[in-house]
Amino acid sequence: MRFVTFEKSDRTVRSGIMLDSDLVVDMSEATNGKLPEKMIDFLEQSEQNMIAAVQLLRLTDGNKGVYPLHEVRLIAPLPTPKSFRDFYAFEQHVKSARENRGLDMIPEWYQIPVFYFSNHLAIKGPEDNITKPIECNCLDYELEVACIIGKEGRNIKADEADDYIFGYCILNDWSARDLQRQEMKVGLGPAKGKDFSTSIGPWIITKDELENVRLGKGFDITMKAKVNDVLLSEGNMKDIYYSFGEMIERASAGVTLYPGEMIGSGTVGTGCILELGTEVHRWLQPGDMVEFEIDKLGVLKNSIVND
After folding, report:
1. Tell me, what's the pLDDT at 61?
2. Residue 162 φ/ψ, nearest 5 degrees
3. What are phi and psi of 230, to 5 degrees?
């Protein structure tokens, strides 16, 4: 199933299910309020609500609460996640990005999956504009997959972590590289280098939809990034070094994870300009359009604008 959040013509915002026929179902309207209006509330009782959502699909007859996709505007499927941890899980990206800066690989990277916290209140969705920070001259994209937590847990083991995952979506971890470089020399961050925006969407696909492409520690799904219709990045999630299970084990060690938290995979190999090098493509500028496409997860487009 594919879950979305969308704005109707009357400006109300609802969570819903996207059908294969380019229709979206307003879950709350279609069930007379039995299912929540907001995705964050749906996730609070995700196991119980999924039963009702499956029943709803069986009963949907194209009438109450069903809208053609062209009559609504998709926004971020989870507009305000409870938190956002972003990991660093693809070896190729880490190696290449460090080599481009004249740095060796970090031995400790192979010992533990590491992450930072980013701004969970600066989430953008499909077709939203991304405002370039005024002081930024080195704006970059990062091609990633996010998983959404659907059940509360603490000290979760990697081989049990799948029970706590609700689903997955495309994630673009926008990066102000010059701000990031400056602050990380101090030994903290990234902070302002990532603070301004993260985009996700167009939907959250439930974990069962990816079982048939599970491979290694990830999934056999192609990941592509284009800038102004020119293909720059292409990788595959199967190449991930740390599984989402291992990331969740690390994130939940001594800490409770709650439904509605979001975890990023980190950038796939070739998945940003920092790794490719500016001889391949300049840093992003206002007017650029960045398009991510990941098998089964859809297409996420955003344009860059001035502040």
Report:
1. 56
2. -60, -30
3. -105, 125
> If DSSP states are collapsed to H, E and C, what string results for 51-86?
HHHHHHHHHCCCCCCEEEHHHCEEECCCCCCCEEEE
d(CA 124, CA 263): 16
Residue-wise pLDDT tens digits, 237-263:
999 999 999 999 999 999 999 999 999
* 177-191 pLDDT per residue, tens: 999 999 988 988 899
Structure tokens at 249: 């084990």
How large is the greatest C-alpha to C-alpha distance in the chain, in angstroms?
60
Distance CA 31, CA 168 (A): 25
Using CA atoms, how far apart are residues 87 and 219, in angstroms rounded to an integer? Answer: 17
5, 266, 16: which is closest to 126 by C-alpha? Answer: 5
Beta bridge partners of 303: 129, 289
String of DSSP letters for 177-218? HHHHHHHHTTT--SSTTTTT-EEEEEEEEEGGGGGGGEETTE
Cα separation of 88 and 78, whole Å?
22
pTM above 0.90, yes or no: yes
Q: Which of 8, 12, 22 is nearest to 203 (CA)?
A: 22
Answer for the pair 251, 85: CB distance below 8 angstroms, yes or no: yes
Q: pLDDT of 76-106, one tens digit each?
A: 999 999 999 999 999 999 888 788 777 888 8
3-state secondary structure of 248: helix
Does residue 228 surpass a pLDDT of 70? yes
The whole-angstrom separation of Cα 60 and Cα 62 is 6
